[in-house]
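Need residues for this backbone.
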């Protein structure tokens, strides 16, 4: 969907158009759920958090002054909701540590990025996911993560360099050595 179409839908939504809300929901729901799921690693929790965000968005959309930032505003809202949930979960976890039989390991979703990003810190993983998996613009990522756009650009460059270096060292095939004679000189191939 083009940015101009999104802007028009957001303005209609701000004026109370329920059909515009429905279109926006259908457009963003799957990606927002995937974004939340990666952070909390639990389908029911992620769905609840995203649903909470939509309820808050419905109440607060009239406060949004620039429809062009709706996408980053929405993703940032999910990020804040996840962070709040994680704080509460950490508090509950501390309480549950007294009863370890209540704890069970969460199942991790299948993730194409997990292997190649395992060496990066959480901030870099989040940045890569927003850029490549969610295909957000660098300016939107800067708004979501609340960092300068130049920082997003430089981190992406650094991450790409590290991934390229890692991939080139790990994917080099074992090539057989050229045949040599007794003096160590290579034979000429004809």
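Answer:
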């Amino acid at each position: 969907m083009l940015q101009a179409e999104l802007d028009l839908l957001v303005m209609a939504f701000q004026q109370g158009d329920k059909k515009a809300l429905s279109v926006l929901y259908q457009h963003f729901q799957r990606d927002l759920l995937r974004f939340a799921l990666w952070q909390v690693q639990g389908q029911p929790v992620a769905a609840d958090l995203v649903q909470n965000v939509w309820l808050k968005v419905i109440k607060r959309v009239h406060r949004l002054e620039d429809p062009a930032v709706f996408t980053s505003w929405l993703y940032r809202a999910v990020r804040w909701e996840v962070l709040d949930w994680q704080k509460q979960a950490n508090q509950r976890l501390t309480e549950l540590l007294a009863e370890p039989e209540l704890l069970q390991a969460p199942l991790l979703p299948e993730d194409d990025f997990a292997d190649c990003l395992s060496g990066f810190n959480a901030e870099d993983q989040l940045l890569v996911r927003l850029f490549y998996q969610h295909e957000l613009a660098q300016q939107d990522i800067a708004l979501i993560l609340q960092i300068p756009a130049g920082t997003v650009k430089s981190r992406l460059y650094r991450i790409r360099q590290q991934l390229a270096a890692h991939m080139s060292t790990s994917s080099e095939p074992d090539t057989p050595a050229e045949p040599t004679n007794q003096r160590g000189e290579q034979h000429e191939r004809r």
